[in-house]
Amino acid sequence: MDVKILLNEKDIPKQWYNLAADLPNPVQPPLGPGGKPIGPEMLAPVFPMNIIEQEVSTQRWIDIPKEVLEILYQWRPAPLRRATRLEKYLKTPAKIFYKDESTSPPGSHKPNTAVPQAYYNKVAGIKKITTETGAGQWGSALAYACNQFGLECKVYMVRISFDQKPFRKIMMQVWGANCVASPSNQTNFGRKILKEMPNTPGSLGIAISEAIEEAVSDKAGETRYSLGSVLNHVMLHQTIIGLEAKKQLQMVGIKKPDIVIGCAGGGSNFAGLSFPFVQDKINGANIEIIPVEPKACPSMTRGEFAYDHGDTACMTPLLAMYTLGHAFMPEPIHAGGLRYHGMAPLVCQAIVEGLVKPRAYHQLKCYESAMIWAKTEGFICAPETSHAIAATIDEALKAKEEGKEKVILFSYSGHGLMDLSGYDAYLTGKLKDYELPDADLKKSTAILKDLPKPSTKKTGKW
Amino acid sequence: MDVKILLNEKDIPKQWYNLAADLPNPVQPPLGPGGKPIGPEMLAPVFPMNIIEQEVSTQRWIDIPKEVLEILYQWRPAPLRRATRLEKYLKTPAKIFYKDESTSPPGSHKPNTAVPQAYYNKVAGIKKITTETGAGQWGSALAYACNQFGLECKVYMVRISFDQKPFRKIMMQVWGANCVASPSNQTNFGRKILKEMPNTPGSLGIAISEAIEEAVSDKAGETRYSLGSVLNHVMLHQTIIGLEAKKQLQMVGIKKPDIVIGCAGGGSNFAGLSFPFVQDKINGANIEIIPVEPKACPSMTRGEFAYDHGDTACMTPLLAMYTLGHAFMPEPIHAGGLRYHGMAPLVCQAIVEGLVKPRAYHQLKCYESAMIWAKTEGFICAPETSHAIAATIDEALKAKEEGKEKVILFSYSGHGLMDLSGYDAYLTGKLKDYELPDADLKKSTAILKDLPKPSTKKTGKW
Q: In degrees to the nearest 10, what's the CA dihedral of A359, A365, A371, A376?
């Protein structure tokens, strides 16, 4: 068997899979002010209507526009790869496959949704898209996508990253985006914060607020905002990962994986790989599906299932999700993409149903796993991806104990070439593990007690 | 036609192509002290004998060991890609194909030779390999390869890069290599330099001297030195690039390219893509073959064809090559891999014969080309690669003028994700072009006048 299982362009999936069509109990609707479900029209100043339609759709299969596919072909179908060297190192009977999302121009899975989002905005007559970015993965993906469609792109980048990690910013600039440090003096909210706290390092919450403010205050109505994870349409766009992987496993005679693993910050990489397999599980297949998060930011494993805001500044509607509370500030672990207080509502509903079983790891164990990976498979993974690798190694060793030839599939969400400082910190012994104290957790989730409560009804038998 | 033309593992070339078998006049032998041709045994303290045998071989096809192929499979066969978006942007009738060498773990073509070199050293019972590196492309490739075979790797990295570009160094450390700043206090030569010039930024010449000194002074005889370009065996190992590309063009019905382009510093990337096509040209095919170098370091276009040392400190034998003189110090352009005073003897002999026609570009034009590339094809290329892209764009525009549907093939030697500071310098207007003044050229080549002269005999009709 080749270590790379390659799909031709003509075999790329032509439709995305929408898990909302198959969940035993539907995802609970977002709530607006006063706890009332919000209608699509309330989101119209923020997102174009074609994206809002996808956000609320319960149609099972949604066509991928030809114009989107033509850009995805630049790196898709992405390779499915067999980690034979890791298998040998672990002496495991398990077969380890990984879906390699590191081959896109920005180096992660993020453009899978950035490209369709840019496309739908373009079709809706929008001229400019605003967004926020932390370490820069999402900002660079949207910059790339906007450039392909000739749209303006404005990225509010958390100031501390803007100053300390200049390389992602340069990538955005190469693709023609305007990347500014947040808080900036370009929005009312940014100016207010700068006045109150001139030396603030910024935060994702502040950056989101600035990006939304710029979008909704464009008098010409030609600017919209874009989000890189959490929302239903983002999960939808990412399902191309799992749909491709399913075809590729079939190419080598594997009907189904036994275990599916992905790292989860906002949830889009995990959802992208796993949702097509969650569908199979709903239909009776026996598959263990594991989203992996850091112990320093344990929304799924220790958070509450509650209605909460998606951002720190409470500008977004309330979403039904596992959350640590919207004011939660995680410790500065290196997996920046996993430092989010909440989790995608679709992923959370799958957890409520028992369809997926989350797990949390400490970052030292994750870096150890990343080092084993680099020394066996040769590639250097992103710190987020190392969480999926840590779980994969654990499952492969368990298969060895049990003497079972399990098929493990995980998502290789991105390469770590822009994140080498984390490896340096690990190699020089500067990294620490952070276990969130119970008292801190209690404090950060106290914010939820006056908000509406979502139903935890579960009908499945998983 | 798919934009990616993919080859299965089973179709990977099983032999390397050795141009030395087909050149009308042979490459002229390296000369030792006193101007006498040196025998293989004189190189034995530096390289293992199996590599020396390849270095002097005139056998046309040389088997690639199974153990080498098994590691190359991690990223090879590499994709051949069609640059349809660039074609459209240029409105050219030319078909532009590029062989994508950016998909290896270190991100360039360098491991194509690092892996076999590590293998042959391992087979010869060597325990440790030393080398030098400038910006770190080669050092990281050798670190990766040594790690795969369980060999120790020691990299002398030019101090200014060691201090200013820490990321390649971290890559090497992830793969278990010992990377030290050169000059170091670990060799006699390094200590001497440090005493004389404690604040020196270092140079490739010094680093080579340190690496060779460590190799030859290992009393146990278990250490050897490795070079990442210039020598015949390195060109040989890189021909897998062109051999794969040839098969891939045939897969889409193209019998031969009209134009083949590669950037050339020491020559290995250019040779790797082009030598299989140079063979076709020797056998009568009409192909234009173009190595591209920077105007700031114009060894092929303005240097002399002469016997010269491969290093600044005159530790290597004399090689027959186009050279600017071994003491030449190029201006600090961003394409660090193209800042070499000489050129691979095999490439130079092909120039003498008229088989390949070198060309030089200024760096601003190259960065302009890299920006066009990033905005059309989406990927961010290495500064070295941008030289090949600049020539490709020129040739595609010429084909447009002529109204000819030419097939252009170029080598995409590596990605630029570790080189974003060069893009930043370009975007902020800080980059300059350097034209080497005639007087400086005359001064730097004066060093050659007392050295033996190689023959410039030419029998071909190209």
A: -60
Q: What is the pTM of this model?
A: 0.96
pLDDT at B79 over 90: yes
User: Is B443 touching A (CB cutoff 8 A)?
Assistant: no
Nearest to A99 by CA among A415, A411, A387, A414: A411
Low-confidence spans in chain A with pLDDT less than 50: none
Q: Residue A106: what pLDDT? A: 97
Structure tokens belonging to residue B381: 């290329």
Chain-chain contact of A6 with B3 (C-beta, under 8 angstroms): no
Which residues of chain A make contact with B2, given a CB cutoff of 8 A?
8-10, 73
B171–A427 CB contact, under 8 Å: no
B185 in A contact zone (CB under 8 Å): no
Q: Residue A324: which of A343, A337, A338 has the closest Cα?
A: A343
* Domain annotation for chain B: domains and CATH numbers: 4-10+63-107+232-448 (3.40.50.1100)
CA separation for the pair B230, A37 (Å, rounded):
69
Q: Give the full edge-to-edge strand order of the sheet including A4-5.
A: A4-5, A80-82, A95-100, A407-412, A259-263, A288-294, A359-361
Yes or no, beta carbons of A380 and B105 under 8 Å apart: yes
d(CA A263, CA B257): 44
pLDDT in tens, A385-410: 999 999 999 999 999 999 999 999 99
Q: How many CB atoms lie within 10 A of CB A60?
A: 14
What order do you get walking across the sheet with B80-82 strand by strand?
Answer: B4-5, B80-82, B95-100, B407-412, B259-263, B288-294, B359-361
- pLDDT tens, position by position, B252-271: 999 999 999 999 999 999 99
* CA separation for the pair A92, B440 (Å, rounded): 62
Asked if A412 has any chain B CB less than 8 Å from its own CB, the reply is no
Question: What is the spatial distance between Cα B100 and Cα B112, in angstroms, rounded to a whole number?
Answer: 13
Helix axes A166-174, A137-149, angle to 10 degrees: 10
Check residue A108 and report its DSSP letter: B
Cβ neighbours for A192, distance < 8 A, ≥ 6 positions apart: none
pLDDT higher than 80, residue B49: yes
**Contact in structure between B157 and B182 (CB atoms under 8 Å):** yes
Instruction: Assess whether the previous peptide bond of B77 is cis (omega < 30° from 0).
Output: yes
Nearest-CA distance B435 → chain A (Å)? 26
- The per-residue pLDDT for A110 is 98
**Where are the strands (E) in A57-171, listed by range?**
61-63, 80-82, 95-100, 128-133, 152-158
Q: How many CB atoms lie within 10 A of CB B185?
A: 10
Q: What is the DSSP letter of B296?
A: T
* Closest residue by Cα to residue B408 from B74, B64, B82: B82
Q: Does A150 touch chain B (CB under 8 A)?
A: no
First to last CA, chain A: 33
Q: What are the Cα distances from residue B86, in Å, to A148, A412, B108, B414? A: 12, 29, 22, 18
**A408 vs A394: CA distance, rounded Å:** 11
Residue from B67, B420, B421, B426 to probe the interface with A (highest A Cβ count within 10 Å): B420
Q: Which pLDDT band, with edges at 50, 70 and 90, does B314 fall under? A: confident
User: Over 90: is that where the pLDDT of B379 sits?
Assistant: yes
For residue A50 the two structure tokens come to 């074609």
Say whether residue A162 is in contact with chain B using an 8 A CB cutoff. Answer: no
Name the DSSP letter for residue B96.
E
| Closest CB from B8, B378, B427 relative to A173 | B427
Cα end-to-end distance, chain B, whole Å:
33
**Is residue A171 less than 8 Å (CB to CB) from chain B?**
yes
Q: Does the ipTM exceed 0.90?
A: yes
Contact A177/A143 with Cβ under 8 angstroms?
Answer: yes
